[in-house]
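Our consortium's second objective concerns turning raw sequence data into structural hypotheses that experimental partners can test. To show how far this objective has progressed, the report includes one record in full. It was chosen at random from the queue rather than selected for favorable results. The single chain below, 285 residues long, was entered without modification.
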Amino acid sequence: MSPRALFLCTSSLALLALAGCDFGTLDDLATDEAAEAPSELSVAARGFWSSYDADEAAVKKLTADIEGIIARTGTIPIQAKVADLQRDDLKLIGFDKDRDPSLVAGMLIVTELDCTLDEAEKLAMASNQPELYPNTYDAYKRTYKSSAPDYLARKADRVAWETDLTATVTSKQYRSILSGGNRRFATAAPGGGPMFLSRTFLTTPATFLKGGEDSAFKQDYQIELYYERPTKKTVHFYAVWREFNIGSLNSDSNFYQSLVLGNLVDFDKRTSKICRDKAPAPKFD
């Protein structure tokens, strides 16, 4: 969601070390099996990642058949493994020389949120993520690098932030610094309506502050697409590429990927509940 961007630290999930996004998992352990995504879904995921800074016409071409791609892939919620990023994809954020995209594992969900687009957008960029998604962090701070009020007032088409979080997983405490942001497009959604992309990435490998001798969290890249359907519900297309391990559990394993994807779906259920309840309210301070 972004909100997002690094997840998981509830006690029931701790031994699974699903660290990554800056939003955390939810209460229940979900382990639905993830299948290999059709190639067109992988192409779409990479396309949205590489088009975060592209012009609206280019993004509009990518979304033109996204409803068809989703329908051909399966029934929402979709959980799938996607193909790797490439060096050119990392070049877009200046990481092509010192990061190896072949070491990351690609994962993707598609869900439908019980939220309007504007509601989902505010939750994705809110600064009070620990209040929205509790029992996740030891410490958390989101600092806006551009004006959130200007973005919400549609005076700017993008907003950027940095997230500094600390969390503990099975007595292993780590600190992550992430670069994040939303970019809104006025007419690029299927049918010509508004949509937004949210992009998050780990700026440097996470630092394990306690008990991390057998652990590493080196790479994390995320891209999210949100657009509203005529039902006033919002499609959430969310791809994650990650290099992570704690002991023998690592991001290449089917077990790990299935856990991550299942918990991301659960996270979106929590987001839908926030929208239905109209609480907690997102904040932008």
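The partners drew two points from this record. The first strand starts at residue 35 and ends at 36. The CA atoms of residues 154 and 184 lie 9 Å apart. Both points have been shared with the crystallography group to help prioritize constructs.
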